């Protein structure tokens, strides 16, 4: 009996040792991969690419019923989304091949253009109101433009450029604020004037991210954070609709047919999907119960159809993209690269957190899309281009450009060898 117990104990110990060895080997393999010069580059490319593909699949699934009912065929919204992706990918490819020196030259022109477009939304006949927000431009034709989306990226590139140019002057707190904070405040004010508080919060998060990374004193950052909190509180309490949303998200079912309708149906979607989901295309909530199922609440449909594994996959990909962006910002020696990478990462992750918090009824329903997943024209193009810029910045990590050059040289040599073999065979 004792011998049997000893053998069982040794077997258990051997099993535990083997498991520990497996985890140690996997951990060491992961460390070796992350030590490679192009690790951040491929983490950005892989996570963003998978999110983009998953988003296209879910846009088709979530919008097929609405497309059929409104336009007579199921591919309307999917076709438009695919068109925007096709347009954005070549631009992102070009952006990924630019140097930071070239990227920063676009900062001021892009910011001026963004401000002009934001101002045009207040012009009668050009500005279009949707969902209570006057944040669209109609120049005629089938597409509308939302200027606040390119304004996010323009603010990041311009802000990073301004701080990079100031250099040692950043030791003086006034140079940390001027001209970045007044210009940012003007852009936020224009966005709030459009009644788009969700986008304004994302813009404020971008401003705070850049100020934090550039190294503002703690007292100044705390003051800026307090100002953002006061502004947000004021505009929430000044609107009965926004105040009702804030109060309603605490218990969406208390006003199911009113302010809690979206949040309650979002919860129903996750509950219907359960652990493993109803299967791709088998959502019940997309049949009209859940408004904006293919835009702001696409994660709810994903959770209903793909269950917990699908939801965790999205969270993992967003975490990977955020980790890669932080890694780029921390490993670079260039000020502009560090600030631009941090700004883009902060923008995408904060917007994702706000969207996920809204659909999970953790935050009030604010109305911002899930980056790379939700349906949207201007938002999709700008986010994909931002990912391309992040890939370009990843090449500034130590050893990255040498690794790329070595890889190109290896490809040339392989092509030459194939040509020589072809000539020899001929």
String of helices and strands: HHHHHEEHHHHHHHHHHH
Amount of beta strand:
under 5%
Helix content class: over 70%
Give the N-to-C terminal Cα separation.
Answer: 77 Å
Count the beta strands.
2
Shape by Cα distribution: globular
Major sheet description = 2 strands, antiparallel
Structural class computed from helices and strand pairing: mainly alpha
Features:
single chain, about 425 residues, mainly alpha, two-stranded antiparallel ribbon, 16 helices, 2 strands, globular
Task: Please summarize what this structure is.
The chain is mainly alpha-helical and 426 residues long. 72% of the residues lie in helices and 2% in strands.
Describe the structure in your own words.
The structure is a single chain. The chain is mostly helical. The protein has one domain (38-396). Helix content is 72%, strand content 2%. Strands 1-2 form a two-stranded antiparallel sheet. It is globular, with a radius of gyration of 25 Å. The termini are far apart. The mean pLDDT is 86.
Task: Record the SSE blueprint.
Elements: H1 2-34, H2 39-71, H3 76-96, H4 100-105, H5 107-120, E1 127-130, E2 133-137, H6 148-166, H7 173-177, H8 180-193, H9 197-214, H10 218-237, H11 240-248, H12 261-273, H13 298-331, H14 335-359, H15 378-394, H16 400-425
Antiparallel strand pairs: 1-2
């Amino acid at each position: 009996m004792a011998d049997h117990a000893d053998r069982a104990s040794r077997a258990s110990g051997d099993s535990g040792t083997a498991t520990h060895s497996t985890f140690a080997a996997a951990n060491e393999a992961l460390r070796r991969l992350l030590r490679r010069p192009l690790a951040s580059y491929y983490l950005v490319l892989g996570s963003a690419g998978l999110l983009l593909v998953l988003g296209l699949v879910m846009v088709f699934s979530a919008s097929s019923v609405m497309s059929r009912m409104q336009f007579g065929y199921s591919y309307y919204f999917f076709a438009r989304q695919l068109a925007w992706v096709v347009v954005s990918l070549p631009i992102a490819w070009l952006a990924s091949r630019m140097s930071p020196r070239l990227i920063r030259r676009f900062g001021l022109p892009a910011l001026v253009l963004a401000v002009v477009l934001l101002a045009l939304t207040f012009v009668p006949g050009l500005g279009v109101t949707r969902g209570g927000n006057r944040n669209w431009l109609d120049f005629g034709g089938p597409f509308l433009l939302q200027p606040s989306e390119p304004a996010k990226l323009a603010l990041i590139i311009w802000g990073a450029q301004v701080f990079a140019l100031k250099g040692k002057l950043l030791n003086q707190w006034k140079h940390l604020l001027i001209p970045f904070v007044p210009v940012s405040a003007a852009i936020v004010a224009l966005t709030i004037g459009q009644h788009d508080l969700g986008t304004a919060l994302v813009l404020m998060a971008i401003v705070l991210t850049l100020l934090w990374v550039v190294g503002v004193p703690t007292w100044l950052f705390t003051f800026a954070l307090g100002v953002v909190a006061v502004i947000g509180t004021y505009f929430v309490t000044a609107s009965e609709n926004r105040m009702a949303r804030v109060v309603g998200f605490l218990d969406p079912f208390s006003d199911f047919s009113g302010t809690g309708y979206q949040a309650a149906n979002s919860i129903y979607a996750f509950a219907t999907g359960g652990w493993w989901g109803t299967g791709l295309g088998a959502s019940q909530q997309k049949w009209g119960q859940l408004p904006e199922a293919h835009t702001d609440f696409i994660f709810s449909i994903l959770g209903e159809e793909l269950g917990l594994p699908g939801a965790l996959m999205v969270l993992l990909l967003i975490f990977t993209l955020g980790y890669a962006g932080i890694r780029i910002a921390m490993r670079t020696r260039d000020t502009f690269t560090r600030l631009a990478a941090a700004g883009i990462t902060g923008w995408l992750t904060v917007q994702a957190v706000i969207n996920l918090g809204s659909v999970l009824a953790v935050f009030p329903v604010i109305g911002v899309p899930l980056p790379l997943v939700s349906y949207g024209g201007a938002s999709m193009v700008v986010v994909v281009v931002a990912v391309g810029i992040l890939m370009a910045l990843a090449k500034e990590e130590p050893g990255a450009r040498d690794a790329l050059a070595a890889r190109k040289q290896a490809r040339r040599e392989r092509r030459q060898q194939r040509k020589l073999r072809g000539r020899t065979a001929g």
